[in-house]
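re: that chain from earlier
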Amino acid sequence: MKMMKKILLITAGLLFLVGCSSTKKESKPEKKETAKIEQVVSKKAENYTSYLDKIDRSKVKTSDIELDLMIDIKNPKALEEENTNVFIARVISVDKAELRPNSLGNTFPYSVGKLEILKNLEGDAEGVVEFARLGGILEEKERAKNDFPEAIEKANYLREQSGKGPVETSNELVEVKANGDIYLSAGEVYLFYANWDSEWKKYTLNGFEYGALKLEDDKQPIEEVKTAENEIGKTWEVKNEGTGQQEDLGEYLEKIDVEVKEK
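^ sequence. v structure.
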């Protein structure tokens, strides 16, 4: 049985214990429980949106967090073993940041939105699905709704000393994300590792920058290459936008024992 991984978050002199990005593997969801959204997805770039584009970053308080993980996310095989789904998908939208439901004390925001599954390599994700990914920008008062009463009391004491009002009414924007991680770009295509969250009704995208590898190819655009489930473009490459490392997709998939044919 897979053990639930934990992340130790150290920020602003406080310690928080929250669920790890790679949430526990679940069995495949029943069809009635799927996050599939019945709608037609337009390919026009103007229909790909991200809430991040509307935020004035000069007004955001930023906090990058060092994470202590129980698996080596740099190892593709370790990621594959902790996730039930591996797929290539386009980011339709990054809608907002929110907190994980029923997780008192976890004030780490998740960016949530929609993906269009273009090629399923492992698992049974299909169509348009909702996703959640650790890291995002959220108002202080929204984060406070998930915090422990004693933590709110301490935060308010410190805020009062600096002339600020209660955290529960603060509209200040706070960015919290893992050090070195990226934000997904709406309209772009990535190779993802994911698990289905039956409570949240979303696919959690795991592995941070190592679990969201951007698909790069001008010679064989994915929309124009008609391939079967086990076929990929010969010139398709994946890029880790956090490290800058780029690699042939076929060679990368060999590391996780996913058999494909280059076409």
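The helical segments are 76-81, 140-144, 149-161, 249-254.
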